[in-house]
Write a structure and sequence with these properties.
31% helix, FAD/NAD(P)-binding domain, binds 3-acetylpyridine adenine dinucleotide, single chain, 3 domains, eight-stranded mixed beta sheet
Length: 553
């Protein structure tokens, strides 16, 4: 076991650790725990005042787990943790997830190694010491052999660059950095830009309280009933008693949830049989359409259309005004933008105090101090809510912009695409590891479980270096190219790359446009485990130098 120590460098002092973790969200918290269990010294930096990452920032009204939820959206590494935490709802509210993470931080005494309200401003690879040097906005200089970037796949806000938006004098909030103090909508005219998950969750809540809500929609979206229900004591008892079986199923499932995939094409059933199944799954809610619905919704146009038509019918049945219903009609392949779970979103358009503006036919021209001006008119507002999403998957790594060998910034390396190997490592950036980065299943997988599994791989890799007396590991250019081909190859069997989405980078002007996630979580984990067993195939190493950080004793 090594210990933390301080070395004098120039006028200041440098704190030295085995590993530095950036980010204290779901991934960074587990990274800290795991590395400490390995006996390593670790420091975590996070800009927030407490743990939780994306769950700490996303406090907008209506925010809740919008995927297959509790009790399986959680860490799995500790049976005791599973046994003692009582989830209350299947689609937990943001505050409930944060309570859980708070409990995890207490239970595993994580906070003593986390420095909050500390933003890493520079991360630079030092050739001589085979280590990473980090500087923070609070004046900390720290150094570590390993840099773990747990910076979040959905944490760098996308703020639209619309003429005059900064002149608007009313309240303005991004859903991804919502104030901690209560925000009142009472008596206010609110405009919401964005109808992705955050917009769809927040719009019904805002409409219940506001004087008027103007929804500015660029792309109509498919949304499915949230299907939230209480987690009963029987559910919890079942999960606890059969935890090993559930966990094994989560490991072998492509999305990391304990469901049996249906191996049946939508086209094997008659239209009546399909409709009967869709009705059942609609009633059940959540992501069951995709987890235990038909197997070819994401790969067959015809199968996809059958579900898309079903949802369009549901929208038409729900929205009373046919003109508004027309505007809400999605025209892309269902599921090829991130599926959304709603709590009365479409019903909200039946309210008198809600207006939908279709930006495709009536685009925003500019903002004034008190209004948003679209092609067809001016809309006076008191508040602007930006539910405009994120520079997802790669954005937070680019915001960190680590400098690799010869001081090359990641922004240079990632100009044309997000070069990486196994979604974990980047050529020219030795000993740097990403969690949920491009090229990994990331957002297509149960994220707490994915963080555990990626971190365990990273831990093994670090031990391998120690055992072999190696100073660095980084991927070769050939292996990065082969990995990119593999990721693209899998995606090309699906309909995902054919739709503009944040998955393809289409939401951010100038961002490289391609589908950057590895589809097929269980296959991915098998692949990265095989690579490790084969002597870390695709990587190159340097021997440990004498003057390298005295790490991992
Ligand atoms: O962001 P989004 P989000 N002018 O990118 C529109 C996760 N999540 O925050 O579709 C006008 O999905 C944009 O339009 P378009 C979840 O994985 C989880 O809602 O690009 N409109 C879109 O409608 C989710 O997918 C939870 O044409 C503009 C919207 O803004 C992901 O986070 C909750 C625009 C952005 O939708 C992101 O969701 C919430 C512009 N200039 C989110 N720029 C959980 O509870 C963007 N838009 C777990």
């Amino acid at each position: 076991m090594t210990s933390t120590h301080q070395t004098s460098q120039g006028n200041g002092s440098t704190e030295t650790y085995d590993a530095i973790v950036i980010g204290a969200g779901v991934s960074g918290m587990y990274a800290l725990h795991h590395l400490r269990e390995m006996g390593l010294s670790v420091r975590v930096y996070d800009g927030a005042t407490d743990v939780g990452g994306t769950w700490w920032y996303n406090r907008y009204p209506g925010a809740r787990v919008d995927g297959p939820g509790s009790p399986f959206y959680c860490y799995t590494f500790s049976k005791e943790l599973m046994n003692e935490w009582n989830w209350k709802e299947t689609q937990s509210e943001q505050s409930a997830v944060l309570d859980y993470l708070d409990h995890v931080a207490d239970r595993f005494d994580l906070r003593r190694d986390i420095q909050f309200e500390t933003w890493v401003e520079e991360a630079r690879y030092e050739e001589n010491s085979q280590s990473w040097a980090v500087k923070t906005n609070t004046g900390v200089s720290a150094s570590a052999r390993f840099l773990i970037c747990a910076v979040g796949a959905l944490s760098t806000a996308n703020r639209p660059d619309i003429p005059g938006i900064n002149d608007f004098q009313g309240e303005c909030y991004h859903t991804g950095s919502w104030p901690h103090e209560p925000v009142s909508f009472k008596g206010k005219r609110v405009a919401v830009i964005g109808t992705g998950s955050s917009g769809v969750q927040s719009i019904p809540e805002i409409a219940r309280e506001a004087d008027h809500v103007t929804v500015l929609q660029r792309t109509p979206q498919f949304a499915f009933p949230c299907g939230n229900r209480p987690v009963t004591s029987d559910d919890l008892a079942d999960a606890r008693e059969n935890w090993d079986g559930f966990r094994a199923k989560m490991y072998s499932n492509v999305t990391g949830f304990p469901f049996d995939a249906r191996e049946r094409s939508a086209l094997d059933d008659t239209p009546e049989e399909r409709r009967a199944l869709y009705e059942k799954l609609w009633e059940r809610g959540s992501f069951h359409f995709f987890l235990d619905g038909y197997s070819d919704i994401a790969t067959s146009e015809e199968a996809n259309n059958s579900l898309a038509d079903f949802v369009r019918d549901k929208i038409r049945e729900t929205v009373k005004d046919p003109n508004t219903a027309d505007k809400l009609m999605p025209d892309h392949f269902v599921i090829t933008k991130r599926p959304i779970l709603d709590n009365g979103y479409f019903e909200t358009f039946n309210r008198e105090n809600v207006t939908l503006i279709d930006l495709r036919e009536d685009p925003i021209q500019h903002f004034t101090t008190k209004s948003v001006v679209t092609q067809n008119g001016e809309h006076d507002i008191d508040m602007l809510v930006l539910a405009t999403g994120y520079d997802a998957i790669s954005g937070s790594m680019l915001r960190l912009n680590p400098k690799g060998r010869e001081g090359v910034p990641l922004k240079d390396r990632w100009q044309d695409r997000f070069h990486n190997y196994l979604g974990l490592t980047i050529g020219g950036f030795p000993n740097l590891f990403m969690i949920h980065g491009p090229g990994s299943p990331g957002v297509f997988y149960n994220m707490p479980l994915g963080a555990e599994r990626q971190m365990e791989w990273i831990g093994h890799c670090m031990s391998h270096l120690k055992e072999q007396n190696l100073g660095t590991i980084e991927p070769t250019a050939d292996s990065e190219e082969a990995w990119a081909n593999e990721v693209n190859g899998i995606a090309s069997f699906t309909l995902f790359p054919r739709t503009d989405s944040w998955w393809t980078g289409a939401n951010i002007p100038g961002k490289p446009r391609y589908f950057s996630a590895y589809l097929g979580g269980s296959i991915y984990y098998q692949r990265i485990s095989d690579m490790a067993k084969n002597g870390y195939e695709g990587f190159e190493f340097e021997p440990a130098r004498d003057n390298a950080e005295d790490s991992i004793a």
